[in-house]
């Protein structure tokens, strides 16, 4: 029986609409790298491939200097924060979360952003008290693709076993995180960064059109047990 659902935010429960790439463009521009240049195209390709990963980790890989990575990460967080007013939930995401909770399944919302940015997103959506737990990489140890946030949620919300955990996200890194954590269900959704082929290749046990379909999947499984 699934006792805990660990859900990604941007692209899974929160509509991204290109805001991550806009914020990245602003952040990398502060490093003197402009759109249209070969260096920018190389970097944006890496960003797209690693959607879901902790943002500071992405900048470390791209810039190879800790001071530059920290500066770019701060610029990214500032730029994203300035775009937050335009954020909207994925259609039906809030209802899906409440359906899971009404069925006795705890919900944790996770992100690769900083705690400050995560709090701003939740505030903008009015979701401060919606989930049973919210986590970012700094609160758990490491970000995706490591299993830390899923395992931290399991400990905090007292699921009986990793097999009783479902992970849902829109990126290959979300799938890798769920697999590494040993989650019983690792569901990809098609409302964000990566398509079915990438999600399947990363080990998704299910691929859904949207998080709206997650309660049906998990509650059917609950009834079967």
From TrEMBL:
The keyword Zinc does not apply. One of its GO terms (cellular component) is cytosol. Pfam families: Hydrolase. Keywords: Hydrolase. The keyword Transmembrane does not apply. GO terms for molecular function: phosphoglycolate phosphatase activity. Gene3D superfamilies: HAD superfamily/HAD-like (3.40.50.1000). One of its GO terms (biological process) is DNA repair. This is Phosphonatase-like hydrolase.
């Amino acid at each position: 029986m699934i006792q805990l659902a660990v859900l990604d935010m941007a692209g899974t429960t929160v509509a991204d609409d290109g805001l991550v790439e806009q914020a990245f463009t602003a952040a990398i521009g502060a490093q003197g790298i402009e759109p249209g240049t070969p260096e920018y195209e190389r970097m944006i390709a890496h960003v797209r491939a690693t959607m879901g990963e902790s943002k500071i980790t992405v900048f470390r890989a791209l810039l190879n200097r800790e001071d530059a990575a920290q500066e770019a990460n701060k610029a990214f967080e500032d730029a994203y924060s300035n775009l937050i007013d335009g954020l909207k939930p994925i259609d039906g995401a809030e209802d899906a979360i409440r359906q899971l909770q009404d069925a006795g399944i705890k919900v944790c919302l996770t992100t690769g952003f900083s705690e400050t940015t995560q709090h701003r997103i939740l505030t903008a959506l009015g979701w401060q008290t919606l989930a049973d737990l919210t986590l970012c990489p700094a609160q758990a140890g490491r970000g995706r693709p490591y299993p830390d946030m899923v395992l931290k949620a399991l400990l905090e919300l007292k699921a009986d076993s990793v097999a009783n955990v479902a992970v849902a996200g829109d990126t290959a890194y979300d799938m890798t995180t769920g697999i590494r954590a040993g989650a019983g269900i690792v569901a990809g959704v098609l409302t964000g960064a990566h398509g079915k082929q990438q999600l399947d290749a990363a080990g998704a046990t299910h691929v859904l059109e949207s998080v709206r379909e997650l309660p049906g999947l998990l509650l059917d499984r609950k009834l079967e047990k």
